[in-house]
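Q: Convert this sequence to structure tokens.
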Amino acid sequence: MSPTRSEERMSTLGSLNALNDVTGASLDRLTELATHTFRAPVAFVSLVEVDRQRLIARKGLPMSEMNIRDSICAHTIGSAEVMVVPDLRRDPRFASNPLVTGAPHLRFYAGAPLIAQNGTAIGALCVMDKQAREFSEAERRQLETLGMAVMDQLELRALTGRREPVSGLPNRHQFSIDFKAWSARSPGRTCFAVLVDVLDLPRANEAGQVLGMAPLEALIKRAGVRVKVALDGLAEVYHVGVTRFAFVVELPSREAIERLVEELRVRLTRPMMAAEVPMSPLFHAGICEAELGRDNADDVIRKMLIGLHSAIAAHESFNWYSAQRDEGLRRGYRLAADARHGLLQDEFHLVYQPRFRSSNLQPVSAEVLIRWNHPQLGPVSPAEFIPVFERTALMEGVTEWVIDHALAQLAQWKRAGLALSLSINLSARDVARQGMADELVAKIHAQGLDCQDVEVEITEGEWLRVNSLPGEQLKRMASSGIRLAVDDFGSGYSNFGYLTELPIHTLKLDKSLIDDISEDQRALLKVQAIVGLAHDLGYSTVAEGAETSDQVAKLQGLGCDEIQGFALSRPISAIELAELLAL
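A:
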């Protein structure tokens, strides 16, 4: 079924973005010019919708819209030329119009239709007077010229505000407008939406630094041309991000859209020249299903982004939107949003996992662990919320909360005569903060504690370099007496090189090294080698994750200094730890 004139008009109005206040403000001078040119008290730009007329720019009229039944302009847009009504009272079509029978009691009307480049009339530029009057042929031509100026202004704003300057393709805002129009025209129809990234941002930034912006923009433009040519006659292409293009298409199946995306990948990854350097574009895509009339444009873009970033993370050409991944992202965002309030409302608490001396299995220290009982979500694992905090600005506040509460508890135990040291985990981000070491030392002394009572656990990684801000902070801690432990040693990055440069005291062997020592001789030999080398280099060793008595016995036989794990104790409360120490 072909669209009606009103549907064409609404679609054109949407593509021109002709209904907002910014557009109306840009036309105020033209309406004021019309009142002066024709010596008329009233002039306005009227846009005709399905059930109403909106006056987006006006002079001499208080109202901003009126019902379509009262619209004189609705008659104007049915004409291809200026419409003049010398005396509205004498015209049976308008004699009962509220503008004629009531204030402001208008008598004269002249309107020039506003016709877009696609031939659709969307409204009119009108002048009105309280006196009946004639309108000369010269005045008709002047009004028609002003009407063309109004139309030029509307289309100029559309061109400058709805197209990406680098590629010349319609932008994300235009995508939203068009998707809304499609939804209104075909509600309930299912389609596929695809977001393609032709050059990931790190690569784009690198290319910009090497080649300059002009060759990079040329590269992006060529990629846009390739997408547009590949989809010619099938879908409109939108430039919705620096290196990202989107389109919506109707195809019979998921297999069909996957084949189309694969064809795009082949076309887009062919080398392209940039500043006489052949570049190999990357290709990642996110795909989602969309139901017109149910999903809005923002939902579709968000779902495509989820699929795209899933593909990037998995190093795959494309991935579909995943509701499970979506829920995980939303949950992570909620945790980040609720964390600050949770700290104030005592939703967080600390538990302590004891570490036992290997020789006699007596508790000698404990690792501080944070727990969160969310009022709606229930207990949330640190494995879930700590990575969320580390990706945001929350980690500093959470770390400070842990340090303050842990040191206060340690001071309380000391006053009760309990001998114990505490191990506190710090992230790479924590240690990379200027002044962190001095702040920690000051907090320890403020509680009446010695720095030797505290151990800082850090996770090994490439950030552990002596000539860096984290390296400087660690050295300041160690020089104050705080012991430093490398957590999860042996889980991946393990390197004895940095250990000789940094003042490390303890290596905590990762649970993955411990799991198989009871059944696998090679695993046992590996742990034996690490413990022996660590001792030879002067490091203390802690085995974490011991879950069976046999593992504990083998670790004792290997001479590991301390053992930590469920086989000896789960994380317990401060009261339970005090009772354990008192035994």
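The longest strand covers residues 363-374.
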